[in-house]
Design brief:
By secondary structure, the chain is α/β, with parallel strands linked by helices. The chain is built from 14 helices and 12 strands. Helix 2 runs parallel beside helix 5, helix 2 runs antiparallel to helix 6 and helix 6 packs antiparallel against helix 7. The longest helix has 16 residues.
Length: 340
């Protein structure tokens, strides 16, 4: 019996289910989680989505988002409740991450839970922690994998507009609006299937890309005008945003999302890095073009990882020292960055 058949058998009985995704979830993380949540609740399971942190306001349109249990480090009861739900769960779905450190304070509760663990993800170098894994590094999004999982579990009849829109948002954003190099015939096929299920491309795109606060737009303008630096000899662009600058523009979760792509859009730039202060550490977003692997760079130097051309990282050093470190390692990659 293959893993789909075994999972299908397990889900024939009503179960207590928890869906967990990574800290600071993006559209793929939250969209795939809420898409799966919509399917499981319709099929009789008691299901809760838990996020280890808050998520961007421009994702609150997603059906089911009001039912998400958000862990807030300033509200200890939210962590206690999350641990209770995880401890009571019979099945835990881990979506859009393949290493338990990505869920921060929920790592040990999930690791120690007696529940069946199901990992659905597309990031490189997964950790071995799950009983079932639906992992495919060639997939452009976790949302695509969730759609396939629902279909393989004979759940097509349950996929309506709400589920389709959530999954479409994940596919759309993780392909950069179908512009990234991970976009191929398969991704357009998935998009077409989601539209047939009821997804509304124009509405989803508008909800994600055309929903800005004035503060967010002003922050973007300030960063591009004052904080964007290009190092032509290394085909690199970087932006460093201080805590005081984020506070000045009342930055909320998600307000810096996408900023790094402006650096990568500059002619001749092959590596773009955005770094900013966040809760006592420096958060980094790295993007690249072609064969240059920011996943390798981030894993080696910044305790992170992700995909070849899109990765994240962190640093316990100051913002200034983190920048110095980035600049100091660039000569190591000079030859790769100078390749056509």
């Amino acid at each position: 019996m293959d893993k789909i058949q075994r999972l299908h058998e397990i889900l024939t009985i009503s179960r207590r289910v928890v869906i967990v995704t990574h800290t600071k979830p993006d559209a793929d993380a939250l969209g795939s989680s809420l898409g799966l949540w919509g399917f499981l609740t319709q099929t009789g399971h008691s299901c809760t989505v838990i996020t280890p942190s808050d998520y961007p306001g421009f994702l609150r349109w997603m059906p089911g988002s009001k039912a998400v249990h958000v862990v807030n480090r300033n509200q200890p009861d939210s962590q206690i409740r999350a641990e209770q739900l995880i401890g009571e769960a019979e099945i835990i779905f881990c979506l859009d991450f393949s290493n338990l450190k990505r869920i921060e304070a929920l790592e040990q509760p999930v690791r120690n839970a007696g529940a069946i663990k199901v990992m659905v993800d597309h990031h490189l170098e997964p950790e071995s922690f799950s009983d079932f894994d639906f992992w495919d590094v060639t997939s452009a999004s976790t949302a695509s994998l969730v759609l396939k999982l629902i279909e393989d579990l004979s759940g097509k009849e349950y996929i309506g507009k709400d589920i389709a829109n959530c999954l479409y948002a994940g596919l759309m954003t993780d392909t950069g609006g179908f512009r990234h190099s991970n976009t191929g015939a398969h991704e357009f096929n998935v998009a077409a299937r989601l539209i047939q299920y009821g997804a509304e491309p124009s509405k989803v795109a508008s909800s994600v890309y055309d929903s800005n606060s004035l503060n967010r737009l002003q922050l973007t303008g300030y960063v591009l005008c004052n904080k964007l630096t290009v190092l032509p000899e290394f085909h690199t662009a970087y932006m460093c945003i201080t805590r005081s600058e984020l506070d000045r523009f009342k930055a909320q979760t998600g307000d810096t999302e996408g900023l790094v792509n402006y650096g990568l859009s500059i002619e001749g730039v092959k590596l773009a890095v955005l770094m900013h202060d966040r809760d006592g550490e420096v958060k980094m977003s790295l993007r690249s073009t072609g064969a240059f692997s920011v996943n390798e760079m981030s894993r080696k130097h910044f305790k992170g990882g992700g995909h070849r051309n899109a990765a994240g990282g962190t640093s316990a050093e100051s913002l200034e020292d983190t920048l110095k470190k980035l600049i100091s390692i660039l000569p190591e990659y000079r030859d790769e960055l100078n390749k056509d």
